[in-house]
Amino acid sequence: LAFTSGVKQLIVGVNKMDSTEPPYSESRFEEIKKEVSNYIKKIGYNPAAVAFVPISGWNGDNMLEPSDKMPWFKGWNIERKEGKADGKCLIEALDAILPPSRPTDKPLRLPLQDVYKIGGIGTVPVGRVETGVLKPGMVVTFAPVNLTTEVKSVEMHHEALQEAVPGDNVGFNVKNVSVKELRRGYVAGDSKNNPPKAAADFTAQV
């Protein structure tokens, strides 16, 4: 499911190591590691790029610092085209995850999740920036109704933003547009840079 959804990086935390027989068993960890490696390889992941970390969430073993209960564990190491990484704990494996690139260079696409009327401010569409950048002063076009207006301000978590980038959930105030003119599902784009248009057909992954 993760692979199909586009999740390309994986960490395998082998939990409850304190409950193995005997506790903190190296052979049980290696057995699980082998089985899971074979499974994720069939799905499409490269096991060499996946950190396997034996942990006990209950006792905190190998979560934030190396555990003295598993002296046999010399640490995890991964190889990927972006470079190698290694460590002993789960938090180090999390820190080794490569941040996704934000598609700021593509035309703006912001599907609306909701539209609010806020007293003293006006009409505020809300949604997540998928591609491109949204800035105050920008002239946006909403598809499919082809409605064009100026963005007065952009906010995230009640703080004004000078620009919103992909991944940001924002509310933005628009000029001279009634709340009845916009609906959930409409898509905002930059009127000057390839605004969203209707398509006769499209290809999608289900």
From TrEMBL:
<dbReference type="GO" id="GO:0005737">
    <property type="term" value="C:cytoplasm"/>
</dbReference>
<keyword id="KW-0342">GTP-binding</keyword>
<dbReference type="InterPro" id="IPR000795">
    <property type="entry name" value="T_Tr_GTP-bd_dom"/>
</dbReference>
<dbReference type="GO" id="GO:0003746">
    <property type="term" value="F:translation elongation factor activity"/>
</dbReference>
<keyword id="KW-0251">Elongation factor</keyword>
<dbReference type="InterPro" id="IPR050100">
    <property type="entry name" value="TRAFAC_GTPase_members"/>
</dbReference>
<keyword id="KW-0963">Cytoplasm</keyword>
<dbReference type="InterPro" id="IPR004161">
    <property type="entry name" value="EFTu-like_2"/>
</dbReference>
<dbReference type="GO" id="GO:0005525">
    <property type="term" value="F:GTP binding"/>
</dbReference>
<dbReference type="InterPro" id="IPR027417">
    <property type="entry name" value="P-loop_NTPase"/>
</dbReference>
<keyword id="KW-0648">Protein biosynthesis</keyword>
<feature type="domain" description="Translation elongation factor EFTu-like">
    <location>
        <begin position="122"/>
        <end position="187"/>
    </location>
</feature>
<protein>
    <submittedName>
        <fullName>Elongation factor 1-alpha</fullName>
    </submittedName>
</protein>
<keyword id="KW-0597">Phosphoprotein</keyword>
<feature type="domain" description="Tr-type G">
    <location>
        <begin position="2"/>
        <end position="99"/>
    </location>
</feature>
<dbReference type="InterPro" id="IPR009000">
    <property type="entry name" value="Transl_B-barrel_sf"/>
</dbReference>
<keyword id="KW-0547">Nucleotide-binding</keyword>
<dbReference type="GO" id="GO:0003924">
    <property type="term" value="F:GTPase activity"/>
</dbReference>
<dbReference type="Pfam" id="PF03144">
    <property type="entry name" value="GTP_EFTU_D2"/>
</dbReference>
<dbReference type="Pfam" id="PF00009">
    <property type="entry name" value="GTP_EFTU"/>
</dbReference>
